[in-house]
Amino acid sequence: MNSPRARLACAALFAAALSALPAAVRAAPAPFEDTMAQRMQACTGCHGAQGRAASDGYYPRIAGKPAQYLYNQLVSFRDGRRDYVLMTNLLAPLDDAYLREIAEHFASLDIPYPPPQPATASVDTLSRGEQLVTRGDAALRLPACVACHGTALMGVAPAFPALIGMPRDYLNAQLGAWRTGKRHAPGPDCMAQIAQRLAPQDISALSQWLAAQPVPAHAKPAAALPAPIPLECGGTGTPGAPR
Amino acid sequence: MSRAVRRLGAAFALLIAIALLLGALVAWLNVRGEEPVDATLPPAATPEQIERGAYLARAGNCMGCHTARGGTPYSGGRAVPTPFGDVYAPNLTPDAATGIGGWSDSQFWRALHHGRSRDGRLLYPAFPYPNYTRIARTDADAIHAYLRSLAPVHQPNRPHELRFPFDQQAALAVWRALYFRPAPFEPDPARTAAWNRGAYLVEGLGHCNACHASRNALGATANPLDLAGGLIPVQNWYAPSLTSPYEASVTGWPAADVSALLKTGVAPRASVSGPMSEVVLGGTQHLNASDLAAMVDYLRTLPTGNAVAPIEPDPPYRPSAVGGKIYEQHCAACHGEQGEGVRGAYPALARNRAVLLDSTANLVHIVLEGGFPPATPGNPRPFGMPPFATVLNDTEVAALLSYLRASWGNQAPPVSAVEVGRFRSTSR
């Protein structure tokens, strides 16, 4: 078995055995490519292949979100307005130009969404959720979610993210973080104001209803807001906002 | 009075005298070599002086510590963690009330050269004045001129959070008497001007050995020339020895590779990570061509005579199959089946000095936190590695690292889960 020919035969046999294994078991490494997708493996390790979200409900989908929204989040993590140490450390050595390119890369991806999460709440809770999303609550000075996030709730380019296609846990965590001051956006921080007016049961109603909505195939952020924005939001390019 | 009482009295008096003398000695050691301070505010600086100062402040990465995350540059507020507590970098903008707007050149010089503040307070050496004492007066004045040219930011300094007795000026005075000696940079006449310029930058403004040297129990390094590597306290990243061919000495490297590493963050045989990313990002990438060449020249001639070869396990360590499986699943796609890496994107792990270091701190940090090399004009779109902190537990990280350290010709001792756990707890 020491002759070169025998070794070659052995190797060929081994290769044949390997190729006979089902793809899922073998998981041959993809060849190296000098692309953004290759560079972004630092992100897709947690956020799922191509940024389609992880299965655990914690790491959100980033694929197909509006570019300016993603860029704002990257800068906020790097500069400490959002608080998650793994993201902050990862982004610390990156400059604005590269963060913008990263945002544009993920924004450009059109990946199918997973099926919605069946709601577990009562009919009353779900109808409260739907009311808040589509009409808001004037008594609580809460604008409707659709006013900024688009009638189809798929977000509005370039800075308002979609609210459907995300798991309940993630929605609850983010609204909770805004409510407790753990998550910030460039000022005026409109979402912080809104979240502080939301009672915990309203947050739950919202997330129950939103997570149960299906996302149509190839759904994209809307091109423009349905009507003038109800309150000023930093980082969105809305009138009066500073950046 | 009995003889015994008299003797006791004499001994007591002697003790007091010794204490007073020691106190006087400490006090004298703390102000030796100081000239009288001129409190006159500096005259308007020339544009050339401001530009020079901006360059030098960049070269020393003053902004790195003197800016809080997301804060206005130079307005202070970032914590420098030390084993004795957190030291908060102050506001360096020229705000008269909260910054250094009221400082004279001579007071600024005294801070850099003697480690004393405008009001005479002793400064903590988290501000690396044991290095900055080497900075020339003209350079100090230029940096001051630049800082005075910034827009003032009203931001009160955050008080340090140090434990007793380290929060006491008297304790600091004793530390300084023991470990700090103000001294200008002394060029070596036997060397070229470029080499001396490199030495000046490395020892002084660049304050390289604030990280690349070990510290004693009281947080002191041996001297600004010691570059034999050390674990950065609290952050627990290991700054490898610049004088050991087994660690990060660059004596055998082409000059172009060393300069690429400092300018772009990546080089054929290494890339920077962790705190060194910050150094390249905020400091060395901004060095002009002649200063960079000078620094490279100096680093390439650092003596390597005292380097100790790392421990090789005997008999050779055979890693468990578990580590190999984890490598196959999570690492091989980028770092290669044989740990060969991809040039310009993913570091090779086979015979990589960073993998074989006695200290496994950096390996643990990198696996847990992932990371990108810094985005620099020379490497504007770096390739990144995902964090595995939420994917692999301590036992798995240990198995993986043990596998890396004993594969493809690597032969370094295994890593224990306890070690991983210790460094995981300091990831921040």
Short description:
With 243 residues, chain A is mainly alpha-helical. Chain A has twelve helices and no strands.
Q: Helix segment count of chain B?
A: 16
Query: What's the average pLDDT of chain A?
Result: 86
Based on Cα principal axes, name the global outline of chain A: globular
Q: Unreliable runs of chain B, pLDDT <50, ≥5 residues?
A: none
Adjacency order of strands in the biggest sheet of chain B = 1-2-3
Annotated CATH homologous superfamily of the domain at 123-211 in chain A:
Cytochrome c-like domain
Q: Rough shape of chain B?
A: globular
Task: Report the C-alpha radius of gyration of chain B, rounded.
Answer: 24 Å
Largest beta-sheet details of chain A: none
- Most extensive interface: pair and counts? A-B, 32 and 35 residues
Strand pairing plus helix content of chain A: what structural class?
A: mainly alpha
- Could you please say which CATH topology of the domain at 123-211 in chain A applies here? Cytochrome Bc1 Complex, Chain D, domain 2
| Helicity level of chain B | 40-55%
Low-confidence stretches of chain A: 8-26, 239-243
CA radius of gyration of chain A: 22 Å
Largest sheet of chain B: 3 strands, antiparallel
Helix content of chain A: 40-55%
**Share in β-strands of chain A:** under 5%
Instruction: Compute the separation of the termini of chain B in Å.
Output: 65 Å
Total tally of structural domains of chain B = 3
